[in-house]
Specification:
Helix content: over 70%
Strand content: under 5%
Distance between the termini: 18 Å
Structural class: mainly alpha
Largest sheet: none
Shape: elongated
Radius of gyration: 14 Å
Order of helices and strands: HHHH
Length: 110
């Protein structure tokens, strides 16, 4: 699935760009990384389910995790942990993932 590949790219970039977070913000770095990984893992787990309804439940979990990731990025930017351009790029990737997941969810419902 294309959305799976895109989610892996987002995770890799979230991990890379959170490496520079100061120790004071380890909790935020860890939360961002867990949320980004959760997007990938929920897509993978859902794809192995026997019905579109079950798969769609996992896609819903991925949507929640990408929204959580975006919130972490907002906080990181507010705390000056991310440069403006990096923040915009990551947020754009998150928005594209959100849209792709939403489209997949609609397709699974039909």
């Amino acid at each position: 699935l294309r959305v799976y590949a895109d989610a892996k790219v987002f995770h890799r970039k979230a991990v890379f760009n959170s490496k520079s977070f100061s120790k004071e913000f380890d909790y935020l770095k860890n939360q961002l990384r867990r949320a980004a990984l959760s997007v990938v893992l929920n897509i993978a787990e859902g794809a192995g389910k026997n019905s579109d309804k079950d798969f769609n439940r996992y896609i819903g979990n991925s949507l929640g995790s990408i929204n959580e990731s975006a919130a972490c990025l907002d906080i990181a930017f507010d705390e000056n942990l991310l440069e403006s351009e990096t923040y915009k790029q990551l947020l754009n990737l998150a928005e594209n993932l959100k849209n792709s997941l939403g489209s997949l969810s609609k397709k699974l419902k039909s």
